[in-house]
Write a structure and sequence with these properties.
Order of helices and strands: EHEHHHEE
Main location: membrane
Strand content: 5-15%
Number of helices: 4
Number of strands: 4
Number of domains: 1
Helix content: 25-40%
Keywords: Glycosyltransferase, Membrane, Transferase, Transmembrane, Transmembrane helix
Largest sheet: 4 strands, parallel
Pfam family, one: UDPGT
Structural class: alpha/beta
Strand order of the largest sheet: 1-2-3-4
GO cellular component, one term: membrane
Distance between the termini: 35 Å
Radius of gyration: 16 Å
Organism: Mesitornis unicolor
């Protein structure tokens, strides 16, 4: 199943049918793609969204980067709670959204190699770019 993990209904269906799933995404809110793929995302190296930092930060920017990521965990739990409830009812077992995201076979991550900061990727994550570029005449 080719699906977008921002709304995990496709992953719920793939889990129910026991078929592999491929995620195509630009980025998940709260950086869940790092946690779901078990990819290292240290705040001293990977800048958080909307922090306006690069991968070269001084000590105070690293502290700000760490603090920037703390509210994301609470916001994500709140935002994805309806999908966890839906998945638990449909699959008839206790399921969290993170359990669903762990089941992905391949992550196709759209990275703009000019705008995005370098970051580590796991072997099942494939960086693809230029998907939204138009052909030159």
């Amino acid at each position: 199943v080719l699906t977008d993990p921002v709304i995990p209904c496709g992953q719920i269906l793939a889990e129910h049918l026991s078929v592999p799933s491929v995620f195509f995404l630009r980025g998940l809110p709260c950086g869940l793609e790092f946690e779901a793929t078990q990819c290292p995302s240290p705040p001293s190296y990977v800048p958080r969204a909307f922090s306006e930092h690069t991968d070269r930060m001084d000590f105070f920017q690293r502290v700000k980067n760490l603090i920037f990521g703390i509210p994301n965990y609470f916001l994500c739990d709140f935002a994805f709670q309806p999908y966890a409830k839906l998945a638990s009812e449909f699959l008839q077992r206790d399921v969290t959204v993170m359990d669903l995201l762990h089941q992905a076979s391949i992550w196709l991550i759209r990275l703009d190699f000019v705008l995005d900061n370098p970051r580590p990727l796991m072997p099942n994550s494939i960086a693809i770019g230029g998907v939204n570029c138009a052909h030159k005449k």
